[in-house]
Structures are given as C-alpha cells and as structure tokens.
Amino acid sequence: MNFKQTKFNLISEQNEGFAKLVVLIQGAMAAVTPQQLSSEVLSAIDGAATLDTAGGRSVVIQALRSLSSLQQRVKLLLGDIMRLIGVFNIDPNRAVDIIIDCFMSSVRFYWPFYIALLDASPWTRGATESLKVAQLVGWKMQFYASEPTTAFKFMDELTTTAALLVAHGLIQLGDLYPMLTPARNEDMASEFDVWSVSLKEARAKSSANQLAEMGGLEDMGD
Questions:
Q1: Which of 89-102 are b and which e, b meaning 16 or more Cβ less than 10 Å from the residue's Cβ?
Q2: What is the pTM of this model?
Q3: What is the pLDDT of residues 61-91, one digit of tens each?
C-alpha cells in the first residue's frame, strides 16, 4: 500500500497518530449497538435463501456485507484511518496491529464490527496481505506465551480473535499454525498431559469446595 506523507516522521507525531487511531476506532465502534447488530446479522442470514461464500468468506461476512448502514460506517472509518496513516507517517502494519488490539479488547460484544472492518480493509484482500495479518496475530501469541504474567489476562481474548479471523476466512490457519507453540508434536503431547492434570485438579478442588459448603449431616436438619 502506498501513502503520501505530509508530515515529518517525528516520534511525537507518531504517538499522536497512534492515540488518534485508537480514539477513532473506539468511537466508531461505540456508535454500534451490539445487540442490534447481532439481530441484523441473524435477520440477514435468515432472510437470504442463499449467500455467496465465494472466496472463502463465511456466511456471516456475506450477511455483514448486506448491512448498508454498517458498511457505510466501516467505509468512513477506513478512509479516516488511511488519512491518519498518511498524515502521521504510521506504519500500515502497525495500524492493523492496533486494530487487532482493539478487536481483542472488545471481542465479546463487538466482534461482528471488527470482522466487517477487516473484511472491507486492504489488509485481507489477498493472500499476501492476509499472511501479514496472520503473522501479526502469531507474533502476539508468541509474545504472550513468553510472558506468563500477562498471558492469563490476554490469551483468551487473543485466541478468540484468532479463531474468529480463521473461521470467517480473513486469515488462514495454515499461515498461523507455524507460529503456534509448542512447535513439536512431542511437546504438544506433554503440554496436553499437563493441561489434563490441571483440569482434573481444578474439578476435584471445585467438588471439594461444594461438599464443604454443604456442612455436616447434623447441620442438614431432621
């Protein structure tokens, strides 16, 4: 992607640009009502006899594309994002990285908005661009996996975001898979065993707590 830069690439200008980008994305997102959007998507799916899923896009994406008000909002947002990239000399890859961060932070309720945004963006229009998005997601996973103190805070949101991107054809699992850990099947089996043991211990602890809350038989009355 080519952008005409109208300002020098100063650190202060970049920081201002990043801040404006986050505010811009969050503002556009906040103007969407999650419940209404979900209802419109379901209505679009139910109301269409067939939806074209050519190009690997999901039925949900085809439904999102049919919502004119959402598409207009997304188009305006993308235009504003492109202008910020040009004015503040923001790396386009850094811009999509920030979009993914915003996606993660609001994935529970606003995921249709971000799926529509990325679907309409130039970052998922071809195999090369889609690969770059998959790599950004993969790098985030590697970073959080190497930081146990922060992994528990963000990994669930990140894996959910990645799953949505793969499920709706915006990135390919094959592009993301090489960046996942552990890399070897032997390590994967070991990790699975550790996870299984921890799950059993959590279940046992939960059952023990429930029994303790019941009290003794003498407390249960006649």
A1: bbebeebbebbbbb
A2: 0.76
A3: 989 999 999 999 999 999 999 999 998 888 8
